[in-house]
Each structure stands twice: as C-alpha cells, then as structure tokens.
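Worked problem 6 (solution included).
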Amino acid sequence: MLSVQTTVLLASIVALVALVVLSAIPRGDNAPKRGIIMMYCTPNIAGDWARYTIEVNRTYARRHNYAFVVVSTPYDPRVTHAWQKIPAMIELLDRGSYAFVVYMDADAIVNKHEVPYEWFLERYAGDILVCSDEANSAGLYAVNGGMVIARNTSAARTLLAQWWALRYAYPEFAFEQWALSDIVRGKHPHIDGRAVSVAPETDFNSVYGEVLAYVRNMDAGRPDRFVLHLMSMDDSTRRAAFSRLHRELVSDARG
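Solution. The predicted structure is:
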C-alpha cells in the first residue's frame, strides 16, 4: 500500500504533467501557428501569482495566433530551474513547425498586446535575440536571460546547445544569464556569440527601476513598455501587481 506521502507526491506529478499537456493544446482556430511562447513555471508559483502571468501571456498569444505552452518539469534536475528553458526551447525548435520560439520568465508579461513579436525579429538580425542587462546589473552581465527569442534556424539550435552544455560550469547566480553574457563577450572562443543580437533593456524586457516605480504606485498607470518583467521582487508584490495587470489586460478586455 502506498504511503500518504507517496500518494501526495504522485498526485502532484500528475497535476504537473496535466499542466504541461493542457497548456500545449492549441486554443481557438486550428490555423498553423507562426510562433510559440513558452514559460517555465515551478510548482510553488503555478497556483499563486504565476496563474495571472500565464493567462495574460496566453491571451496575447491567442491574439497573434501563436501557440502557447507552460513547462514545469526539469530536463536536468541537477541544475537550477533557470537553465531548464534552454532544452525546452531546443525541443520546440526541433518540432520544426514554428518560425520562432519565445521564452518568457514566469514573472514577465506582455503589456502591449497590439505589438507582435515579429516586430523585433524584423528589427534584429540575430538567430537569438535577448535584451541587455548592463543597466540592471551595473555592467556585471551583458544580457538578461528572462526573455529569449530564438529563430528556427540551425545557428539558433547550435548556440542553444552550446549554451546548455555550459550548465555545470556556472553553478552560481546568475547561472545561465552569466553563461550567455560570457558567450556574448567572447569568453568562450569556441562559441560564436555573433549569432546573438542584444537589444536595449526596454525593447522586450525591463529596467528594474522602472518596474519598481510602477509597483510602488500602480494607480499612476502602467509603463508604456512592451514587456513588464517584475524581476527580483517578493511574492506579495508580484501577487498584487500581476492580479491587477490580469484584470486590466484580460478581464477588462473581455468586458
């Protein structure tokens, strides 16, 4: 007979698998999807404030006929969850049916739903697109890993695989972000960092000071930015902000 602890563990695993599978099912019409948005969401936040960010980003995806998926199960449990987006992106690209894959941190939402991701793909030539983190990290990191756009190209797959291969070499914060920053800065000569285009922080990510000002005075209105990424904030702050953003961007939009 299974112990109570084992039963609870199995139920949790089933719930996580269901979350992944249900999130991957195309919603709305059955037309081919141009791209796919993927979020990696750990179980401790899936039932908390992340439920708001998932729904906001899923609503945006539907508007632009993008597929949408939430991944919760680690590909390599020996490394922190921050690394898990990379093999998930590779797997989605290998399916071959998407022109591009967008990864979004669980604490990031699309704020301007009228703007498609193709706008950034047309503006930047790289196979991988990320935003700078120079301002947020005072120059410590070249890029922020919370938002990553990958074209469906062999060059993108190669760079993602090489990035993933560094996971045991960067066991400390900022993990994969530190690794990609070193790639961009040429510290891994065997990896061609020229495949990465680095956009300004506010193109499709955030400047910390700006989103901090927003959460401190939400009545002043949302910043006029494509993405709001509430990085380095506590659960109560995210819960209050994302519930409000969900109301403004999803509930109110539905009428």
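Discussion: The chain has ten helices and eight strands.
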